[in-house]
Every structure is written in structure tokens, then in C-alpha cells.
Amino acid sequence: MKKSKKKNIIWLIIDVIIVLIVIYFIIGYLNFFKISREQKPIFEGKDTSYERGNGTVTVHNYTLYKIVEYEIPDQNISYSMKLWFMEDVK
Predict the structure, then answer these.
(1) Which of 22, 32, 38, 55 has its CA 20 to 30 A from that of 7?
(2) What is the DSSP code (8-state) at residue 65?
(3) What angle do CA 7, 21, 57 make, to 5 degrees?
(4) How many Å apart are CA 67 and CA 62, to the nearest integer?
(5) 90, 70 Cβ separation under 8 angstroms
(6) 10 vs 89 pLDDT, higher one
(7) What confidence category does residue 52 fall into, taking pLDDT thresholds of 50, 70 and 90?
(8) pLDDT at 67
(9) pLDDT at residue 1 greater than cutoff 60
(10) How far is CA 18 from CA 12, 15, 31, 65, in A?
(11) Cβ within 8 Å of residue 82, ≥6 positions away
(12) Contact 69, 57 (CB under 8 A)
């Protein structure tokens, strides 16, 4: 009976972690849509900017994911949501 209680506790912890990760990414998508509409995001991440080719790249870093804003003057602004290990702009 003790093994079954330990298994239940372990599965409960795993379930809670999975739910928290899913909620984190749902908030991430909401942040993505707010940033792409030039609104204030739900919560702030670490922002960095740098020049790339003929445009400016702004990266909003939220640890597990990042939102990349690539602006080419007089043309367009593109937004993308990427995992932490992915390249910002190709």
C-alpha cells in the first residue's frame, strides 16, 4: 500500500508540473499576440535589441521561450515565438 501512495504522489507532482508548463505557454501566446499588436504584455521579460543586416532585432526573453521582433525600416515588422535554444533570425 505504501508503494501505491508514493506512485500517486509522484504522478500528482508530474501532473502539477505539466499543468504549470501549459499555463506558462498559454500566457506566452497571449504575450505574443499583445506584443504583435504593440500592446503591453501580461508580464515583462528581459528585452535586448541589436542590428542585423538592414534591420533591428528586438528579443523579448521569457526563459523557456522568446518573442522575436524583426523590423526592416520602410518595409515590415515580423514577429515570431521561439524556444530558448532557437536562432533569433535566419
Answers:
(1) 22
(2) E
(3) 155
(4) 8
(5) no
(6) 10
(7) confident
(8) 93
(9) no
(10) 10, 5, 20, 16
(11) 65, 66, 67, 68, 88
(12) yes
Amino acid making up residue 81: M
C-alpha–C-alpha distance, residues 33 and 37, integer Å: 6
Residue with cell 535554444: 85
How far is it, in rounded angstroms, from Cα 31 to Cα 17?
Answer: 21
Contact present, 26 and 33 (Cβ < 8 Å)? no
User: What are the start-end ranges of the H helices in 37-87?
Assistant: none
Measured over the CA atoms of residue 41, residue 47, residue 51 and residue 57, the dihedral's sign is negative
Cα torsion 89, 84, 50, 57: sign:
positive
* Distance in angstroms (rounded) separating the CA atoms of residues 1 and 42: 45
